[in-house]
Amino acid sequence: MSQDTNVQKKKIVIVGGGVAGMTLAMALTKKKGNFQITVIKKEAIGSYSPCGMPFVMEGKVEYMEDIILKTTDFYRGRGIELKTESEATDLDLDNQQVTLNSGEVLDYDILVIATGRKPFIPPIEGVELDGVYTLSNYEEGNILNEAMMSASNAVIIGAGIIGLETAVAFVHNRIKTTVIEMLPSIVPQILDFDMAEIIQRHLKTKGIKIYCSTRVSSIKGEKTVSAVATDEGEFPADLVLIATGVKPNSDLVQEAGLAVGKSGGVVVNPTLNVEREGQPFKNVFALGDCVEVRDQITSTPKISALASTAALHARMIAENISGGDLKIKGYLSPSITVIGDLQVGSVGLTSHMANQSRLEVNIGRATGQTRSSYYPDNKLINIKLLAHDNLLVGAQIISEEDVKERINAIALAIKNKMTISELLFTERCFTPPLSLLTDPFIRALESFEQQKEKVED
Predict the structure, then answer these.
(1) How far apart are CA 341 and CA 178, in angstroms?
(2) Which tens digit of pLDDT belongs to each residue from 260-278?
(3) What is the distance between the alpha carbons of residues 141 and 177, in angstroms, rounded to a whole number?
(4) Catalytic residue at 212?
(5) From CA 383, how far away is CA 347, in angstroms rounded?
(6) Active-site position among 51, 212, 290, 429
(7) What is the CATH number assigned to the segment(s) 132-244?
(8) What mean pLDDT is predicted for residues 321-350?
(9) What is the CATH architecture assignment of 341-456?
């Protein structure tokens, strides 16, 4: 009787045990389907929060072990077979088999590709020196956290979210820190120049030196790094972090003949099935950082390398494997981070993205308080909105509080194509300890109307 049950189980093999793969495995255990779930993962640990690593270094979280979310025993106790410290080396889609680096061959009924991302390493002389690090997995987090303890001068190449979060951690540990960014402003993926300046001024008060529009020519040293050479001069360094972005880890799927898009990510349809020669595989899915998605507003291909996107994909695929037909046709990629004392949120397009897509946008702005002025501890909030044809297409918000909820609400409004007028006349809650009677978001929306009146005059 037991053997018959095992034979009837649908074999699901998940290649990759990061946020996407492990979230999917757990989601499947909650479904009613009769599944045999196997996860192939490089790490020895169960699951962890990669987004938490800079905050361990900053001291907001005490130990690296604290960001381990679930142990391998936990997953095995839920009936999930983990192939830890393993890698898939071949995907045979026609015979429905996965070969591991150990030589083991796994049969599958459903294959899910969750190979994630890898750091982009620019072609700079000296990147191989001791003392040069990336921060892309738990092992690297442990190594960098240890190296930080004895460092005096750090140079971070790249002023994206990870670079700036880690810069704050370094100065908290009394390391003289310089950030080098070749683009004209910091966090260009999520902020316009004027909003980025707010963050840059804040980081300056922390003692972080930032050089934008600056190129790194080489990393210097014999065996160990000693300095970073740029077109603005040399900066001493006994620790260098390369934080120049990530790219999809799609080599394995390319070797299997699956379609890869312009972004380098695996091409998927709205149900997250992969394609080969224009034809979808109904029993092969891909999700998370390794896939290419479509921007909802511009329809251009992009990578949405966010843990929140990976978790959404995992829930979708679990539903579709269980008989559903969920689809996502467009992505807004709402993001949130904490840099120093500031919460930074963004959703949709920046001005640069709009210009690239030749989309004319109007700008709405407001600066105000997060709660009534007479109530203690109210915080300054800066809001910038982008609109096209009476619809919001982007938002950027910076404050010490209340950013996440606003970004999520705006993402919902953009997704549902609410007009500016509809947003202006939507009911809102109010209490002095938590809000203003007329919220700064409303004033940012009203600034669009004021612009329209000026044009009409």
Answers:
(1) 19
(2) 999 999 999 999 999 988 8
(3) 18
(4) no
(5) 12
(6) 51
(7) 3.50.50.60
(8) 96
(9) 3-Layer(bba) Sandwich (3.50)
